[in-house]
Amino acid sequence: MPDRYRAVVKPVVTEKSSTAYAERQEYTFEAHLQATKPQIREAIESLFGVTVTKVRTLVQPAKRRTRGRSAGRRPRWKKAYVQLKDGDSIEIFEG
Is this prediction's pTM over 0.90? Predict the structure, then answer.
């Protein structure tokens, strides 16, 4: 079980996550595979000083990748969509 500082690995900043932020005020993070929704909520609230209202998670499946003749796999990972209370924001996604 990850502690609160390892429950959230990093923010995911892509076109899709930017659209989700613009339309629904949802922030996207990569989370530890064993992290639960309450752990993710606690980590976001303590790290950024905001109030989380909703957490949705999904596990991205592993993908097979080939380079020349060798084949490998990218690991699976957990994605967390986080909604905040009205008026709260995280500066990483602003701008």
Answer: no
